[in-house]
Amino acid sequence: MSRSAVLGVILAFAACKPAPGIPTTAPDGGAAPTDGDPGPPSEAATVLRYDASARTLRQTGHLELVQRGAGQYAEAVLDVTASVAIEPKGDRLEVVWKVGEVKGLELRGALQQEGDDTKGFLETHGIGAYLSDLRGQAEVDPALPQNVEREEKLVAMRQRIADATAAGKPAPIIPGLQMLSYLPPLLQLPTLPEEALPLNEPVIVRRDEETELGDTGLVLPFDVEVKYTLVRIDDSGASRLAEMVFEGTASGSQEGPGGEIVIESKQSGSLLFDLTKRIPVSYESSRTESIEMGQFSGETETTLRASWEE
Predict the structure, then answer these.
(1) Where do the structural domains in the chain lie, given as residue ranges?
(2) Does the predicted TM-score (pTM) go above 0.70?
(3) The domain over range 3-309 is classified in CATH as 2.30.230
């Protein structure tokens, strides 16, 4: 497998990752149930849930990405503004995000290509939608009208990467499409913990889950552990605010065509949540992920920062 092909696999894998930071499934590995309105928080513990009312939030998002693999690298820094429209749909929420403006964009390494208008591409095609429960647990549906064009483009890109990798050829990297694939983790609402959180008492969640490696058909089992700590409740302003910090690890391995595939991930971050309006205020996350495929290896470092207001 060529060096650029390995990097292409790493890029493709990163592009298919779910929204990062906070567990996306219940501890048993299945989809987390919808808990409905948790009611007012108790004195002993606080439950974080989104409001079921229709509303539109204005979001600013910041992404920093560095990927290294087989002697090559890709680097990106992105600043965007977006709208996030939330509508109740039965016992679910429909969330539609749309890029307003790309305010800053820096591409280096494999993502820097002559004549590529990634900024314009993201502002034109940067739209998506998903259904979720009141925890923000995303149920992404490629058939939703806002997702069709983006998913068609990304599926074609991943297929070209897979074909090139299978043939031992350099993997094609299209900056606009690659950056488009990073928008959902940045612009989806943070997933909230299922558990009620006592103040200053860590809550540890362990679970097993599976992740497909791009479109290779390989499914890796993962052991996941995440620790949440509610560190602050602020009643001094017009809204009651809760600040939560989290840190987590995930590891998985599977035999592949070129030998054993091993992936390890470490992540930490924080969430400021408005308990009165039941919307996020700000979110920050840093993740380091390493992948080994036989004799080749790669690493991805991702930093996300986001803030919301009505």
Answers:
(1) 3-309
(2) yes
(3) yes
